[in-house]
Amino acid sequence: MFETHQFNTILDKEFLLENYDTLEYLLEVFGDFLALMPEEVEEIKAAQAENDKDKVVRKIHAISSAVGFVGGIDLSDRMKKFEVKAKNDPDFDIANEESQAIVNEIDAFIGIIQQEYNQLS
User: Fold this and answer.
1) For a Cys-Cys bond, which of 35, 47, 50, 75 suits 55, CB 3.0-4.6 Å?
2) Is the pLDDT at 1 greater than 80, yes or no?
3) Phosphohistidine: which positions carry it (predicted)?
4) Superfamily assignment of 21-116 in CATH?
């Protein structure tokens, strides 16, 4: 079982243990996440390059729950706050440092999930 696995501290282990009763189920969810997220992040980066704030906000909204479902509760919360801020500020620059930082954090998070998936497989 994965109860004794030392998850990366960025992941909410308690959430994972409460919501995924078998290693197989957790690996399936991690695998689905890994299959989808790299393309989503590339679409966010492309939208940033095009200065398409609406698309960036939609994409961040769309993937924030998925990040939470794989144990990234804190990152998911930050993504939701970013979404609200960007949506409500008409002058928000989608290519600013804050925007770049959240996308970099999502990218790094995908790498963490990949490491966990590899270790648990």
Assistant:
1) 47
2) no
3) 61
4) HPT domain (1.20.120.160)
